[in-house]
Amino acid sequence: MKLVYGIHDKPKFGQLIVLAVQQLLAIMAATLVVPVIVGNGMSPAAALFGAGVGTLVYVLFTKKSSPVFLGSSFAFLGSMAAAFAGAVSIQVGYLGLILGAAFAGLVYVVIAIVVKVAGVKWINSLMPAVVIGPTVAIIGLSLAGNAIGDLTTSSLEAGSMYVAVICGLVTLFTTIIVTSYGNKTLKLIPYIIGIIAGYITASVFYVIGAVANLPALQIIDYSPFTALFADGVQLSSFVAYPDFTFMTALKGTGELTGGYIGTIAVAYVPVAFVVFAEHIADHKNISSIIGKDLLEDPGLSRTLLGDGVGSLVGAFFGGCPNTTYGESIACVAVTGNASVATIVAAAIGAMIISFISPFVALVNSIPSCVMGGMCMTLYGFIAVSGLRMIKHIDLDRSRNLFVVSVILISGIGGFSISFGQVTITEIACALILGIITNLILSKKTYPENYSAREKYTAEAEKSESE
Fold it and tell me: Is 462 domain-assigned?
């Protein structure tokens, strides 16, 4: 696609700040929700800080060549829960989060070494476009339920689903209109404008509901702001340092046991191999968007090291292992802004705002329906990016048809397998089944460029001659 800003381009300072905020808004909801799901006192602000630091590490390892933001990984939710379940105290649980990220990072280091020695051709052979394309599409499609679920959800229990849908659709259509009809500047920030429009709409409904005593119109929750001043106006109402994971983890070092370390290794290591598959899919996707194969330059070994080490550093501060975010990739696809400088600015911004209480409260107050409207386009673009990878694949050939079919149906159907605390996600299962199907059908009788119709014609002609 045609990029407005290339990888090494640097927008003007004012534009850079605005574009960085847009990247943050694209990844922030998912990044903040992971520690909330895990619970046990984990800090969303610390997770945001960890995501920023992890992204900077990733940018460093990839030689400023990959425009992707790293955020909290959902794939490790079960592993993080296991860290607390097997801990003798909350302090040991926090230590387990860091140890687990270290084990996962070690897996990435080992794979990076293998790739460095063996190259990436085997990966391209194992996972060609006919396998990776539908897998990337599944990444977007598997999130469709989350987007629609958010779109129809009110942040307040009494709020009407219909009002929530209206606010979400205002966000969606504002984003679409700005992207399609806006000037060059507006087209770079459609998500910011969309979220502002949705937030204002929700606020107007809230005021009307308050004046008319109609709770059903109130779908936005302002409690994150009121909580800042629950104990009066204090310094923490404006600035507060996050509860970093390592601060609690250090208190549990004396209670650490060999059995617990083994539990952590079993919980994290297998999942790291699963996330590796998603790592490949994400980087194939962003490569197709920016027109540069990142598996070749800066190289898969570097992207793996950046992801692995960035994940460890992120968990040290925020407890959550990080991973490359499809939302960030989709943001690049929609806006045409592949500037790594924007990613760096977003990472630094994430670290800064994790200390600014009002900003964290503002983000937490954005209604779920507004984020759902935004995510409809984000997740949709991920799916379309994958489908675009297979537009030149001949689906008249039964081999290609079977590979794509198996991946799409297993992925959309939600096929996943769990072994104790380890879950092979639907995306990983779809990719694995696609690889197996492709390998089974790899021994072909006809040349690669033969379609099913050409094969039939050739067989008919051969039969007639005999």
Answer: no
